[in-house]
Amino acid sequence: MDPAALQNLLDREAIRDVSLRYTRGIDRHDDALLLSAYHADAVDDHGAFIGSPDGFVEYANRVHGQNWVCHQHFVTNQVIDLDGEAAHCESYFMAVLKRPDGACDFVGGRYLDRMEKRDGRWAVADRICMVEWNVEAAPGGPALDPSMFVAGTWDRSDPSYVRPLRADRAPRDLSKG
After folding, report:
1. Which residues form a coiled coil (predicted)?
2. pTM of the predicted model, to two decimals?
């Protein structure tokens, strides 16, 4: 294989990993993981917050904790324009955030990132978060009983950190009444 083509693939995968570390870090309130998506001198323009990665982590944890009981951030379509040790990325995102009253806020937009590879590590150098739509879904209607499922946490006690993962709850089939 062509070494340049291989490096291109490796860089693209490392950039995708930056996006996934960001979403997992923000949803688990894992400060170290979230910070690992940024270079220390990065700037994040997130609308209501514009500033450093450290400031953004504090802001995100505070705002998410004040307004919602759980949330999930998703990165979908992603365009990566590589230029040596820099890249410009456009990542579509969607976030679902559940309020204490059961209503959910749905938000969609794009992250526009300039990423840089420094000392072999890709991370965000500048980010602009663009919210392009949002909608509220009222509680009610068909819903799954959350108590049937393993509960997540906003820290490293979340089951996603357990190694090795074991599905060790007692067998059951609640559809059989």
Report:
1. none
2. 0.89
